[in-house]
């Protein structure tokens, strides 16, 4: 079991390190920056999981193979990026495979350390999405997991299968294979069919509110249009006049604001003083 978990972790690390390196090259980072992103994307989820379950030092730090796999993925992407970029679709598939591997291995490791089933599933999901979230933050982007098609949900589904298998005393290897297949299948289908969760929409002004605002505009237009101007003509019922009138009657804090419309008497007084 330990050998299987190590193999899954290393495979997932390599795949996610590729995604981090690709993001670094696209942002025109230097070699050091690309290698940093590859290590972060490939290992941060596992490091966070190990710290939270008390497995210290984390495997990604205590085992040189994690660092080596991440650096190899970063160097290959940096020097042979055109070849990697041509494999963009396969890389997305590999990313789904890495997500599945990390989700099930993280869940199984959390269960092995005695965590309850719910938290084990959540830590498995975190193992899969943690590196990508930090990668996106480092390149000043909204994390993909918060805005793309099914990603965290797929990881959580795969982790849930492992937890259910543990509760039913099923062979852990079989449960991990089924969970990884479910997570991978959901991720690939989401990419192909553009499946996603509902997206938040900005709240629009209600029809009643728009009608009330229109009535206020009509009242102000009538009031402003009936007042004489500085040159003996009514005020123009422009949107600027109406907005100035509205502000004059609704100063923040409830205090009355002085009317900013010029009066003929003030203008005449100013002209005589000049």
Short recap of the structure:
Helices cover 73% and strands 0% of the residues. The protein contains twelve helices and no strands.
The SS-based structural class is mainly alpha
Radius of gyration: 31 Å
Strand content: under 5%
Tell me the number of helical segments per DSSP (H or I, 4 or more residues long).
12
Order of helices and strands: HHHHHHHHHHHH
- Please give the domain count: 2
Helix percentage: over 70%
Low-confidence stretches: 229-240, 250-274
The number of strands is 0
Distance linking N and C termini: 96 Å
Q: What number is the mean pLDDT?
A: 79
| Shape field | globular
Largest beta-sheet characterization: none
Question: Can you describe what's shown?
Answer:
With 274 residues, the chain is mainly α. It folds into two domains: 2-193, no CATH class; 210-273, no CATH class. Helix content is 73%, strand content 0%. It has helices spanning 2-26, 31-53, 59-62, 64-79, 81-86, 88-112, 117-138, 152-167, 172-193, 207-225, 239-249, 264-273. Helix 1 (2-26) runs parallel beside helix 4 and helix 2 runs antiparallel to helix 4.
């Amino acid at each position: 079991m330990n050998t299987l978990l190590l193999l899954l972790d290393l495979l997932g690390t390599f795949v996610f390190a590729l995604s981090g390196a690709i993001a670094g090259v696209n942002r025109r980072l230097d070699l050091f920056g690309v290698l940093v992103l590859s290590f972060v994307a490939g290992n941060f989820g596992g490091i966070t999981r190990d710290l939270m379950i008390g497995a210290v030092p984390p495997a990604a730090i205590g085992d040189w193979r994690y660092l080596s796999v991440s650096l190899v993925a970063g160097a290959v992407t940096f020097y042979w990026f055109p070849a990697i970029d041509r494999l963009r679709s396969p890389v997305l598939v590999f990313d789904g495979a890495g997500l599945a591997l990390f989700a099930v291995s993280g869940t199984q490791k959390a269960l092995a350390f005695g965590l309850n089933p719910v938290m084990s599933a959540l830590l498995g999901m975190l193992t899969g999405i943690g590196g990508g979230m930090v990668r996106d933050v480092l390149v000043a982007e909204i994390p993909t997991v918060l805005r793309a098609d099914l990603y965290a949900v797929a990881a959580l589904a795969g982790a849930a299968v492992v937890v259910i298998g543990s509760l039913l005393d099923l062979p852990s290897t079989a449960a991990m294979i089924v969970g990884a297949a479910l997570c991978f299948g959901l991720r690939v289908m989401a990419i192909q069919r553009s499946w996603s969760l509902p997206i938040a929409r900005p709240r629009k002004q209600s029809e009643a509110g728009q009608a009330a605002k229109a009535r206020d505009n009509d009242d102000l237009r009538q009031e402003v249009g009936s007042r004489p101007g500085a040159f003996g003509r009514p005020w123009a019922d422009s949107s600027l006049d109406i907005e100035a009138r509205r502000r004059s009657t609704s100063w923040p804090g409830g205090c009355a604001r002085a009317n900013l419309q010029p009066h003929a008497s003030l203008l005449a007084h100013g002209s005589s003083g000049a």
